[in-house]
Amino acid sequence: MVPEAAAPRRGTFEVVFLNDGAAAAKLDAPRTITVAEGEATLEGVAPAEIAPGGFARVSYRLADAVAAQPQVAAAVSTATPQEAEATSLGRFETYQPMYALVGANPSDAKLQLSFRYRLFGQKPREFSTGDGSREWRAGLYFGYTQRMFWDLSEESIPMYDITFSPELFVRAVSPGSTSVGSPMLGIQAGVRHQSNGEDGADSRSFNTLYVEPSVGFGLGNGWTLTAAPRIWAYVGSKEGNERIARYRGYTGLTLDLKQTDGLGIRADIQGNIEGGRGSAEVDVSYSLRQWTGLNLYLYSQLYTGYGEALIDYDERSTRLRFGIGIVR
Fold first, then answer.
1. What was the pLDDT predicted at 134?
2. Which of 9, 107, 133, 295 has a CB 3.0–4.6 Å from the CB of 153, allowing a cystine?
3. So where are the chain's domains?
4. Tell me, what's the pLDDT at 127?
5. What's the per-residue H, E or C state across 261-316?
6. Sign of the dihedral defined by the CA atoms of residues 206, 209, 215, 216, in that order
7. Are 230 and 247 in contact (CB under 8 A)?
8. What is the pLDDT of residues 88-146, one digit of tens each?
9. Its pTM surpasses 0.85
10. Using an 8 Å Cβ cutoff, are 321 and 304 in contact?
């Protein structure tokens, strides 16, 4: 755990818990901690889970500050609107990998941003034993991923294609564990929209319903392996893009092998099995934290197949890029 700032002489302060693992990790925040100013007590409810590559903020109050308040007031929230809003930001979680990459050809730079937001509750949905919520709506998320292709060779350095991908999904997990041989189970199902925001002949837009179970295992020495197969169906109109399913297919598989503060290898495969079309994306990353203290990764990516950019979904390409990752 890493304190966000030095503990104040009175009042509350926050402690940040980090998860560098490949799977969600159970958070068992201590009820009391000792700092230079004395003993501090957990205030409010701490999250039960930290998303892969994510963090959780937990508030503590110094004991002398608690004693100075009337007993009745201790049960009443004194958060200002700004403090309440800051607390809700803890429901934001990392989602897909985030990076900035460039290849041998500067016209092929690629960036990706992604997050998810838990719409209800303070704890994520769990379907087995643990401290998580059992309410179905606690697993309801809004997710957003934006993939951008940047032409750095032109004077105006334009984005030549952007994929906007909002989605709404339900997610449930088992309590996280990195013990050797102990499985970490999860399932996610939702509806996803993908579009490049263009109009006319350049428009690319479609919707899918998908289901994605997952299983992860601790391998020892900080290593974890996660496998997540998925299947989807196209829904709604594909007007002007009727052939997308031929190239993007209906099935996929993600394999994620990584070591905390070490090497990471992620493979994402999808395609049309019957048609023999599809794509494979392989990411290799290495944490810079041990060398520099930076929460960044050296990042490389190989993409081969159809449809890396929506505008060219029916064209086959192979590209190798290098850069910096924020989330892997």
1. 64
2. 107
3. 2-87, 95-327
4. 61
5. CCEEEEEEEEEECCCCEEEEEEEEEEECHHHHCCCCEEEEEEEEEECCCHHHCCCE
6. positive
7. no
8. 567 899 999 999 999 988 888 999 999 999 998 767 776 654 555 667 788 899 999 99
9. no
10. no
- Extract the residue ranges of the chain whose pLDDT is less than 70: 1-10, 21-23, 53, 64-89, 122, 126-134, 175-181
Scanning the structure block, which residue is given the tokens 């350049």? Answer: 202
Spatial distance between the Cα atoms of 302 and 142, rounded to a whole number of angstroms? 29
Task: Provide the CATH number for the domain formed by 95-327 in this structure.
Answer: 2.40.230.10
Q: What pLDDT, on the 0 to 100 scale, is given for residue 66?
A: 39
Residue reference for tokens 């501090």: 40
Residue 173 and residue 17: Cα distance in Å, rounded?
19
Report whether 27 contacts 173 (CB < 8 A). Answer: no
Q: Which residues of 9-27 are buried (b: 16+ CB within 10 A; e: fewer)?
A: eeebbbbebebbbbbbbbb
